[in-house]
Amino acid sequence: VSQSRYRCFICMQNNRKQRVIKGLIVFLFFMGLVIYFKPSEPYATGDGIEYVLTTEAWYNHGSPDIRYSDFCTFKADFVAHQSWQSNYKKAAFDEVGAFVKDNTSQRKEYGGFYRNSKGNVYGYHFVFYSLVNVPSRALTAMMNIHPIKAFLYTNLFLCALLLALILFSSKSIPWAHLLFFGVVFFSGFFYYQTWTHPEVITVVLVSSGMVFLLDKRFHAAMCCVALATLQNQPLLFLLLWLFGYIVYAHKFNLKPLLPFFLYALVFLIPSLYFYTLFGTTSLIKDAGYLSFTNCTLNRVFGFFFDLNQGMVLSLGLWLLFYGVLDRKS
Question: Residue 46 — left, alpha, or beta (φ > 0 → left; ψ -120 to 50 → alpha)?
Fold first, then answer.
């Protein structure tokens, strides 16, 4: 009995040491990313103005409707770190601020911002990523950090969270999972860390779903992919494939599969959100951006082979060389 207790004690000690080592790896990984990306210039990339101001709205009053006061608080924090004139998107920010302020105008849309029948202004993307960014926004306010940097710290935290999920998915070191993480991280994904867009959270959620799938944790896998559809609704096709895989794994026994149907409801949340506010399931669709006329051979070819972001050319560990070249330049 004493030998059995001793072996159990040694096993517990080893497990505790492994958890400490894994935790230290995640911490050093996160801090390394912070140090690497800290010199990057804060910039509202792409539709970043919308995500910035929606984050500000969530942070200021706990709702996604964008008010003129949200524009003012963001601008005040911005100019505490750099001049407003140095803001590359100063003119666009000012135009949006003027649009939000003038609630008596008949104009219902400006640059991806829409005013509903009640006079409230919302962005035409769903608000999930901006909500996730609120803790980092609060951190930047508390620690006197540039407000746009909130997106960077959210993205880096999500990457560290994915690494932690992989490391702690088993008692030993999950080398196959770590290889998967390396291939994902050292791809074009690496350079999206500074973006004020939901690319990083989408990749992290989908990757987490695949890790859970490998471990046959089907509910967690479905949940992650379903959450990813909130900002990227075409991922419904991946969600359907995942559901089909789970149906096959359960040998088509439908009774235990009934809870999985609930995850499909997550996909409907953005449509219900916009229908409630504007009487349409998608403002982006109404703006014409989902038209089949946008599907050209050049776009399809570029999706895979574009020298900047093509899937094939920027796959996996090849970007380790890019990192070296980036440092030398």
Answer: left
Lookup: tokens for 17: 């040491």
- Go through 252-273 and write b for each residue having 16 or more CB atoms within 10 A of its CB, e for each that does not: eeeeeeeebeebeebbeebeeb
Backbone phi, psi, residue 115, to 5°: -105, 125
Q: Is 296 exposed, middle or buried (0-12, 13-18, 19+ CB in 10 A)?
A: exposed
Tokens of 111: 């640059």
- Considering only CA atoms, which of 65, 41, 71, 33 is closest in space to residue 154? 33
Task: Determine the Cα–Cα distance for residues 284 and 263; give it in Å rounded to an integer.
Answer: 23
What is the spatial distance between Cα 234 and Cα 245, in angstroms, rounded to a whole number? 18
What single letter denotes the amino acid at residue 154? T
Residue 319 has pLDDT above 60, yes or no: no
Question: Tens digit of pLDDT for each residue in 130-142?
Answer: 999 999 999 999 9
Q: What are phi and psi of 127, to 5 degrees?
A: -100, 10
CA-to-CA dists, residue 134 to 25, 107, 261, angstroms? 26, 29, 30
- Residue type present at position 294: N
Task: List phi, psi (to 5°) of 34.
Answer: -60, -45
pLDDT in the model for residue 310: 64
Give the residue-averaged pLDDT of 80-99. Answer: 94
Return the CA Rg of the chain. 23
∠ CA 46-163-36, nearest 5°, is 55
Cα 175 to Cα 261: distance, rounded to the nearest angstrom: 33
Q: How far is 83 from 69, CA to CA, in rounded Å?
A: 19
H-helix or E-strand spanning residue 247: helix 236-249
Sign of the dihedral through C-alpha 112, 116, 119, 120? negative
